[in-house]
Amino acid sequence: MLTLGHNDIMLGCRANDWHAALDQAAAALGEAGLVAPGYRDGLYDREAQSSTFLGNAIAIPHGTPESREHVKRTGVRVLQFPEGIEWHDGNRVHVLVTIAAQSDEHLDILRQLTHVLDREGVADKLAAADSRTAVASLLSKAPVEARLDADTLCLKFPARDHLELALAGAARLRQAGCVDATFVAAVAEQTPRALGQGLWFTSSTVGVNTPALSLATPETSLEGHQEPVQGVFCLAAQGDAHLGLLERLAALLDSGSGEALFNADVATVLARLSGESASAQTVRARVLNAHGLHARPAKQLVQVARQQTMPIKVRLLEGGGEAVSAASLTKVIGLGARRGQLLVFSAEGEGADAALEAVVGAVGEGLGEKVLPFEEGRDHTQDTPREIPLEPLPEDTPHQAVAASPGLAIGPVFVMRTPRFEYAERAEDAVHEKRRLERAIEAGIEQLEALVRSAPGGEVSEILSMHEEMLDDPELHQAAREGIEEGMSAEAAWWAAIDTAARAQEMLADRLLAERAADLRDVGRRVLGVLCGVELPTPPDEPYILVMDDVGPSDVAQLDTQKVRGLLTARGGATAHSAILARALGIPAVVGAGERVLGLENGVELILDGERGRVVPAPSLERRQRAELSLKERERLEREAYAARFEEGRTRDGHRVEVAANLGNTAHTADAVERGAEGVGLLRTEFIFMAHAQAPDLDTQVAEYRQAIEALDGRPLVARTLDVGGDKPLPYWPVPQEDNPFLGLRGIRLALTQPEVLETQFRALLTAAVGKPLRIMLPMVKDIAEFRAAKSIFDRLLAEIPENERATDVQLGVMIEVPSCALLAPSLAAEVDFFSIGTNDLTQYTLAIDRGHPELSAQADGLHPAVLRLIQMTVDAAHAQGKWVGVCGELGSDAQAVPVLVGLGVDELSVAARQIPLVKARLREFDLAEARRQAELALAQSTSEAVRDALERC
Ligand code: PEP
Ligand code: MG
């Protein structure tokens, strides 16, 4: 939004006529470096189309869209003419607010100025103002209304009481950037007040950046108070910005319609709080005018509304703004509606149909302007980036991005550009549209079922099944049906429902959950494709490297692994489902490489290094030959390693190092054993919890763990207790919003706040492993006190459960992930049975680099000498007490790190199942003495780069 600075205002201007005034305005923009001289003609052309006089002695000259090429920078210049000038339409003007805008920013200015138009005497005040401050304050005081929109709502939250709901609402406001942590703390300290009709209210002025209102509703109605709890409003108050909203809320309660908010969806809540009556008829209409509802079309709309026999209200579908009178010009302009946005008109009583039809018809016809139909996905609204010609990537030059799936690929690229879906926005026959949508959803589900059947299993099938569930979501269907009932086509209504849900998902603080928005859009496109009969572009018959903007998970699942040698995306991170799938399918992948990769010509050769996260387009012959050699070498090694996968993990001279598998799903245990796993070295049990809508009970957990134990057939299972909280939330275990979730309530800290959950998990593991070796480890432990707290529960269970009903070969250990634990390893080693070093987190906390940071994570290298020293301290302390040490972070499968870790004395390496044969093969390449030399060499360096260089040379 444009704001007025003092330097933007020029006082005491004089002009004989409007031409001279406009020339001065153009010159002022030019002198400020905002426009080139050609813009002046644009200002004249615009006035020739229609006057930019706004009212109250203000005109807002701005160029035509064609003249935007002369705009260098967006900005405004305000010229005050105390004596006034006669504008060409006969109005008297004292102030020109002259706008240089690259897009539709003039709408924001218009919006800010509408309050001036309402006020009496402003024209005289503007003429008489003798300071810039006075002019600025007359023009700039935009009416602030507290924010209320889909992002400030928190509906159907699994809370247990009104306090938790109040906190959920406060946390939502914090996520939306309206408040800071002090606000959340202030809300936590007070008890919500009952408003009646099941609604409650809490508020604070502390830590408010933007005034806003949140509503949190419970999953199911909460009883147990004097009053039922159906929803808690949480207000971030500042000035009187919330008064309008609270008045509308009071009116809702006065009319006894508070229940309208129970179990309501986002659209209904916003409609009720906008002041739109539940009994009113509503229709939607899309703004088609190229520059939105600016003064001219707004005037037309107001005229049509005034011709009707009943009051008509209008609001923007997006956001939670008030439903205003469609007969008020300032209110209609104040909506600031842009092309593509949906207006919701409402009217009550007999004849409402006809009245609404008249306004919708007028909007559809362009309100006096020539308009083009709006095509979702094709139209250039504020949400769709302008097409900027992509500068090609330089040839034979490495381009760095994010490593997402290891491996090397060489081949021609095939750039898959997102298909365009073309469809009409509106449709007459709602019954027919609903049927079309139903059929398309069914076809989508059938496609997914077929994909699940032909999928290689594991994560691929799981994600495709999750997509099937998403497609079956009754709320999505309902939202789309409502859109159709309001006159949208099946395509438009479906995409609006998908987009709304995906946006809500994207707002979530947790990166993993936010990335699920890609899944939703993927599912949405599948159905849209069926509706529009659009098929994805056909890839070549020869093997290729697939380049996409942001590959959808089901795109990856459908990849022909025989043909797709590698995957390169412009967007996305290493934790996206597509990256996880690429790893599961063994396809080398580099992600987040930027838009320029989309400019690659189809057929251009590319080297893709999924290990280092690098691509080289059009490599020189020499570089290509080098890459081909290492690829051949790698393939040979992989074949040999796989053939020898069942050999024990040993160095060349026979030193034993166990090689186990990291798993998140017990169903994959048999596959890991088939790949040569000597046990499971890390079972991330949180994935089992995440796969359930509520905490799995004892029997469910026993069944899960038994699946792994049986498949292991006597090999050891190392299960990590629940590691959630912070950045890995469990929906049914809410944790207040934290400034630094990585340093917050997570891992064992969180588990100890609900010891009964930990106890059930211990009990389930012990019960499932009767007669089998079981190791349990605790995540994110910082010192011996946390270990002892968990151990006391564990020991009690050992005493309580008869020996024949539980595992007897059990060990309890801790993960070394927090530097304090490595530093204090001697005190821990005396009491624990083993250590397993989580190098992913240990590196993150030692180097203070977020392991998922899009730019920095490449520097979070576990071969940093500081991390290696902590590993050395851990191993020395453990061995001094006769305890064993494993490494279960990614470092364990890093070919350069393997000898270093063995040289430091690590006894077990637990790695991704696919990596097991390679790690065993790597162990066979060196002997213990060599490993020790490499460890010493690494410890003597001062940076991770130096470590890698030194290791490469030796
Ligand atoms: C680690 O931190 O290294 C680890 C293995 O745990 P996770 O990656 O699950 O945090
Ligand atoms: Mg960890």
TrEMBL record:
Protein name: phosphoenolpyruvate--protein phosphotransferase
Single GO BP term: phosphoenolpyruvate-dependent sugar phosphotransferase system
Cofactor: Mg(2+)
N-terminal signal peptide: none
Alphabetical keyword list: Coiled coil, Cytoplasm, Kinase, Magnesium, Metal-binding, Phosphoprotein, Phosphotransferase system, Pyruvate, Sugar transport, Transferase, Transport
InterPro entries (alphabetical): HPr-like, HPr-like_sf, PEP-util_enz_mobile_dom, PEP-utilizing_PTS_enzyme, PEP_util_AS, PEP_util_C, PEP_util_CS, Phosphohistidine_dom_sf
EC number(s) stated in the UniProt entry for this protein: 2.7.3.9
Uppermost EC category: transferase
Taxon lineage: Bacteria, Pseudomonadati, Pseudomonadota, Gammaproteobacteria, Oceanospirillales
